[in-house]
Amino acid sequence: MKLVQHLINQRAQVITGDELMKYAKGLSISLKQEEAEKIASQLRRKKVDLFNDGERIQLLKEIARITNEQTARKLNRLFSMFQP
Q1: Whole-number pLDDT of residue 61
Q2: Under a CB-based contact definition with an 8 Å cutoff, are residues 27 and 77 in contact?
Q3: What span, in angstroms and rounded, lies between the C-alpha atoms of 49 and 66?
Q4: Quick count: other Cβ atoms within 10 Å of Cβ 23?
Q5: What pTM, to 2 d.p., does this model score?
């Protein structure tokens, strides 16, 4: 399971705004291109362990500042899909 977590975290660290838009659209998460680029930039800049509750919550707070709280909650649903 650690290998899968590592691969997911590694993928999050190289995601592009366009890819994030694709995932968001697939889950009916409303996201503007500019927001997706900023979120992807945050993910690339910070090494965040999406499986660590504290790190994920801090990231979601930053995402809420970039977008809004509702979008951050929806992205948390996306991240939670990968939880063991």
Answers
A1: 94
A2: yes
A3: 20
A4: 14
A5: 0.81
Q: In Å, how far are 1, 3, 4, 18 from 39, measured between CA atoms?
A: 26, 24, 22, 11
Collapsing DSSP states into helix, strand and coil, what is residue 10? helix
Tell me the residue range of the domain where 7 lies.
2-80
Q: Is the dihedral of CA 14, 42, 61, 71 positive or negative?
A: negative
Residue 69 φ then ψ, to 5°: -65, -40
d(CA 33, CA 76): 19
The whole-angstrom separation of Cα 41 and Cα 63 is: 11
Question: How many CB atoms lie under 10 A from the CB of residue 68?
Answer: 13
